[in-house]
What we know:
There is one protein chain. By secondary structure, the chain is α/β, with parallel strands linked by helices. The chain has two domains: about 1-205, 2-enoyl-CoA Hydratase, Chain A, domain 1 (Alpha-Beta Complex), CATH 3.90.226; about 210-255, Lyase 2-enoyl-coa Hydratase, Chain  A, domain 2. It has helices at about 35-50, 70-75, 80-100, 115-120, 150-155, 160-170, 175-180, 190-205, 210-220, 225-240, 245-255, and strands spanning about 1-5, 10-15, 20-25, 55-60, 65, 105-110, 110-115, 125-130, 135, 170-175, 185. A seven-stranded mixed sheet has the order 1-2-3-4-6-8-11, with helices on both faces. Strands 5-7-9-10 form a four-stranded mixed sheet. β1 (about 1-5) and β2 form a beta hairpin. The protein is globular. The two termini are about 25 Å apart. The relative contact order is 0.11. This is enoyl-CoA hydratase. Belongs to the enoyl-CoA hydratase/isomerase family.
Amino acid sequence: MDEQRYGEWVAVRREGFVAELVLDRPKAMNAVSTGMARSIAQACAALAEDGSVRAVVLSSTHERAFCVGADLKERNSLTDAELGRQRPLARAAYTGVLELPMPTVAAVHGYALGGGFELALSCDLIVADGTAVVGLPEVSVGVIPGGGGTQLLPRRVGAARAAELIFTARRVAAAEARELGLVDRLVADGEDRTEALELAGRIAANSPVGLRAAKRALRVGYGLDLRAGLEIEDAAWRSVAFFGDRAEGVAAFNEKRTPNWPGE
């Protein structure tokens, strides 16, 4: 397995067509500092340009936490001016995950709070184990979710449920999180990363061109009226229908063999 480090606290591991974006700041339970935000953004920029990556798993090395959110110890020492200068870096980290062109899967265990849960929400799918505790508690410290939470959460669970969760700042344990749709799969304790990597592997077996076009249609079309959404879908279909992956996929189906995707 190949590994590329981005600063001290973020790594990207590669195995086949799957990349694993690893949060690796265990002493701070992966709290997102200015430096860590910069590293996440840099790692995502590199992944976005890598046409050989078909799926990405976002994971953590900490045994008891996926990510506890913003580094409030660092924030406590910042002046208003310094906090303002930090903001673009924080946005770049969350936007970097959200805008990855290939499917993404978050592997969540332990605490995924505030910005940590927003990193997971920025992924297409969330796999959680029984130890997971998720939530957006930002109003309890005088701010609001700023990594996409006010927009991504209602798209998952509806406006009223998102409002209740954000306004109360409450933490949600794994079983209820699955029931509410805050996570997509609930697995046995300690199995979140394994399940996420297996899921990413199944995704990565498919056409890389098709996967990116399908994600684009899903993301851009969601929230539009049906007619506009169908136009987005048609444009995405046309962007792949006359190129190499479609021809290879149809040929492989008829010849009863595994496709050898050209990725074109």
